[in-house]
Amino acid sequence: MKKTLLSAAIGAAALGAMAPAASAATLDTVKSKGFLQCVVNSGLAGFAQPDAAGNWNGFDVDYCRAVAAAVFGDASKVKFTPTTAQTRFPALQSGEGDVLFRNTTWTISRDTALGFNFRAVNYYDGQGFMVSKKLNVKSALELSGAAVCVQSGTTTELNLADYFKANNLQYNPVVFEKVEEVNAAYAAGRCDVYTTDQSGLYSIRLGLANPDEHVVLPEIISKEPLGPAVRQGDDQWFDIVSWTHYALVQAEEFGITKANIDEIKGSTTNPDIKRFLGIEKDSKIGTDLGLTNDWAYNIIKAVGNYGEVFERNIGEGSPLKIQRGINALWSKGGLQYAPPIR
Amino acid sequence: MSTHSPAFVRDQMIVASPPPTNDTSTAAWIRKNLFASPKDTILSLVGLALLFMIIPGALNWLFVQASWVGSDRSVCATIAQGGAQPDGWTGACWAFVGDRFQQFIFGRYPLEERWRPLLVGIMLIALLIPILIPKAPRKGLNALLLFVVFPIVAFFLLSGNYFGLAHVETPLWGGLMVTLILSFVGIAVSLPLGIVLALGRRSHMPVVRMLCIGFIEIIRGVPLITVLFMANVMLPLFLPTGWTIDNFFRALVGVALFASAYMAEVIRGGLQAIPKGQSEGADSLGLSYWQKIWLVVMPQAIKLVIPGIVNTFIGLFKDTSLVSIIGMFDLLGIVQLNFRDPSWITPVTPITGLIFAGFIFWIFCFGMSRYSGFMERHLDTGHKR
Fold first, then answer.
1. How far apart are CA B313 and CA A13, in angstroms?
2. The whole model's pTM is what?
3. ipTM
4. Topology of A124-223 in CATH?
5. pLDDT digits over B116-157, tens only?
């Protein structure tokens, strides 16, 4: 996402400074500590944010709780390390955190050079555009000649240039250093279009004087697959984190929710669901992961299925009101797809 | 020579008459200071016009239009924004500050344990006030309590884990509490350490001198952000696996060392100003090195550099907000974190939050500045110009 270069430099320096990370199995370390240490954002609306009482809430935070539920059967056994864009990778690399859930884009350099592993994508983000409804624009392709507000030094700025060039459109970039400045410039009408990651556009829109007069266009011009990262070299832990996400997605596909899971568990005859919930005879799915067989039950019981986590934190049930869009299930035209759990 | 004075010579001075009312009345003051010449008149009128344009609007925004109570964004958002205020409304959102006030002070410190930082705060005030009043007795005991006993008690109270207190980890600390802890430790460590470094830099022992110069120049030559970043990000990579040093503690050490390097140079400035004769006088009285420094040189040097010392303290107090870049939440960090919360996002919440944070910072800095002014006057023994 942003500040990639700096993070990469720090991460690379970090790698140079030490031998490959902790050799002890992360699962054993987590179990002996008695809690999961989860690296999250130091404050991003909808993804990781403390409430009035100081408890962390959000989409990424619920994922941390889900992993804790899978490991301990208790979603409260988790502690959070808030990090900035620069400190997130060293925090994971140094072993300070066990897993990184911090709206982090999966890229090849992070997967290889930085020494992390990515597999599950819990949120497909991408760069989008927001315009005033007064312009009567329905698609980004109608934006020729527009003044575009953008933050300098980000991949956003480069993607913007690529997109307009590829589509032979003219535009005037209005560039600022800080996100607050970009917000102010857009609010004051100094530019017609605001571009940044789509998930961010929704929270920015909420802070405008007339949110209903602005619309987020449907085009997404970059790929920002956000997902959890773990250190390379610990396949078991990598599996647990990845399959926690797949369990959440699979539960939504089955129609299992936090509310109805006990009822379904008692009454179901579907062998798939029985296998999923660990109530099939001689099931080894959970124990093969290094967990108990009711791991998936514990996850859903604690945080609900993927759809519930989404709606509660960033979707219609939250002030952000982000549409499911490409984050819908594959069966509903989205990209969220869980490999078979069998 | 006759000592007789002629009758027309007065033998005492006439008591000075008060100046004519034309010179002392408010009208005269205004005439003299604001409208003395055409140029003054124009500047005054422009200034008054500016004030007249700004102040009523600011007061209206800050107090009259402001929204005072509420528990979510609806009280500060207009109908178009999904709130309850009429369209076109704008005003300060004090409801936001009220709703999150506890968090601004204590961060995410557990609700049921918040009496602990509160108690620490009360202890700090109780110990700080007498040490700041020159006439209050028992300064030595007071200083011992404040700088030795109090930090230990405060540590156990805040962190817990002993004496039946629940353990509260430092990632949960935040807000004004963190700002004050960082500043207190920075101030309490930097003054003595700075004195030692300044003396070391002027020492005749080459190794000591080189060490002090090296420390001061290295620390002073890098930005505080770099020091914090090294402490937060790089240090854990150098430590053996399994070793962890608390993040907050690392930041504390970083801030204290940074302030010490600056303090050392301020104190050295004072030492340079003390004439050599003072040292020689002390030597000829047979005082030892430490007696000489403690009784003769340092009291004069410190007095000279009070403005510089307080300047460093104020700078340190404001620099503590940099810890937010390493994922810690001081007062400013926690305010920023809260106005990004979706349940409070409105166009006016960030401004209100920043005004609040700025005001709190100002109160503390202004207090320090006024106190230093008072100390300068109190210690003034003939250097006044």
1. 34
2. 0.79
3. 0.71
4. D-Maltodextrin-Binding Protein; domain 2 (3.40.190)
5. 999 999 999 999 888 888 888 888 888 888 888 998 999 888
